[in-house]
Amino acid sequence: MLREQGRIVEGVVIDVRKDLPGSCMVAYRYEVAGVSYECCHELDASQQPADYWLGQRISVRYAPRFPANSIVV
User: Fold this and answer.
1) What's the pTM value of the predicted model, to 2 decimals?
2) Alpha-carbon distance 67 to 51, whole Å?
3) What's the pLDDT tens digit per position in 7-54?
4) CATH: 2.40.50, 2.60.40, 2.60.120, 3.10.620. Which one for 2-72?
5) Quick one: which of 4, 26, 23, 7 has its CA closest to 15?
6) How many alpha carbons lie under 13 Å from residue 66 in its C-beta half-sphere?
7) How far is the C-alpha of 48 from the C-alpha of 54, rounded, in Å?
């Protein structure tokens, strides 16, 4: 649903964990309508175009009716 109906906003990486080979957990923060949200997204090898680092700007896709529901684009 997010890939089809979600809106895109800029976010920032606040934590990165690479505990398992081929897997990466990215924690990020973004703001919608003056409200800040913090979420995590587990990326598999096919979703990792490059390494993520703290403070990196990223695109986040969120649900318009429930902005806390989001994914890294």
Assistant:
1) 0.84
2) 26
3) 999 999 999 988 777 778 899 999 999 999 999 988 876 665 567 889
4) 2.40.50
5) 26
6) 6
7) 15
